[in-house]
Write a structure and sequence with these properties.
Blueprint: H1 15-32, E1 57-62, E2 68-75, E3 80-87, E4 92-95, E5 105-110, E6 113-117, E7 124-131, E8 134-140, E9 143-151, E10 164-169, E11 172-175, E12 179-180, E13 185-192, E14 195-203, E15 206-212, E16 219-223, E17 230-237, E18 240-245, E19 252-260, E20 265-276, E21 282-293
Antiparallel strand pairs: 1-2, 1-9, 2-3, 3-4, 3-5, 3-12, 5-6, 6-7, 7-8, 8-9, 10-11, 10-21, 13-14, 14-15, 15-17, 16-19, 17-18, 18-20, 19-20, 20-21
């Protein structure tokens, strides 16, 4: 059971910001907000709140081979849906309580239909089948749109993945949270022409993205601009993202203390100034420390 990570060099350094939301929101929002995608028109009769009790509980999203993913949902007896993720400090499934990672909806079952109701949204319907601990949803008959397998609360989904990423951003402390629907950090080697780059990223309420250009081993490297090595910090607020970058004037340093392939861990420190897009504001990032898993 692994998160599939994009290897394409062209988007590798943007994946820290966008992949987390895609992994969580696409599977759920496509199912919850697929207006106009089902074969039948949404129902017009009043909401009645009926629910087949067999689908109450925790469910993990699965691929076509029925292998577990890292996100899922909890369906309560009153029809509310809550997003599930992983507590990476333990490797167990958990409820995600911080916005924007929770997607709330109400669900009904009518005959062989799943019916959704969301705030300020119309009804939407899907057909569904239930077979033991497996459930499938269909927008088009014969083509599963979503596969889910029942799990127990706080089920062990993967090995624990210890991680540390902290800093102060213009004097405000930032500390990585361990609960997320994806592995929220990475350190990985990437070929860049005739040299090798080291990419490091962290994505939660704030996101960080570093490129150590022409990485040759532990030591200090400059953070300036693309082609030399650079840093980025981004504030994430719902669908809005504000980013700041290092450049020839606003610079910094990242120090790799260790990159241990056998232990699959990367440790280091960093500090830099970032000019926010649009000019004017500067984010002073200080006291940065990380201890991350090395990923592919």
């Amino acid at each position: 059971m692994h998160v599939i990570q994009t290897q394409n060099r062209g988007i590798a350094h943007r994946i820290c910001l966008h992949l987390p939301r895609l992994l969580l929101l696409f599977p759920l929002l496509f199912a919850l907000q697929a207006g106009g995608c089902s074969d039948d028109d949404p129902p017009v009769d009043p909401w009645n709140g009926t629910l087949d009790t067999r689908i109450v509980g925790d469910w993990a999203l699965c691929n076509e081979s029925w292998e577990y993913g890292y996100s899922g949902m909890r369906i309560d007896a009153d029809g509310h849906i809550t997003v599930l993720g992983i507590d990476w400090s333990t490797g167990k499934s958990c409820v995600l309580t911080s916005t924007p990672y929770n997607v709330w909806a109400e669900i009904e079952t009518r005959d062989n239909r799943l019916v959704y109701k969301q705030v300020e949204r119309a009804y939407d319907t899907l057909t569904w089948t239930l077979n033991g601990d497996r459930m499938e949803w269909f927008k088009v008959v014969g083509f599963p749109d979503r596969r889910l397998r029942r799990i127990q609360p706080e089920q062990q989904m993967t090995e624990a993945v210890p991680m540390l990423f902290s800093a102060t951003i213009s004097g405000v402390p930032f500390q990585l949270k361990s609960r997320a629907p994806w592995l929220p950090v990475f350190a990985r080697m990437e070929p860049c022409g005739t040299v090798t780059d080291l990419g490091i990223g962290c994505s939660q309420d704030w996101a960080f993205d570093f490129v150590v250009h022409d990485y040759t081993g532990p030591g200090s490297y400059p953070l300036t601009m693309s082609g030399i090595g650079h840093g980025r910090v981004s504030q994430i607020d719902g669908d809005m993202i504000w980013s700041g970058y290092t450049d020839s004037t606003h610079t910094g340093t990242i120090t790799i203390l260790s990159f241990d392939q056998s232990l699959k861990r990367c440790k280091g420190t960093f500090e830099f100034d970032a000019l926010m897009a649009g000019g004017g504001d500067i984010r002073e990032v200080r006291n940065g420390v990380f201890d991350l898993p090395i990923t592919r």
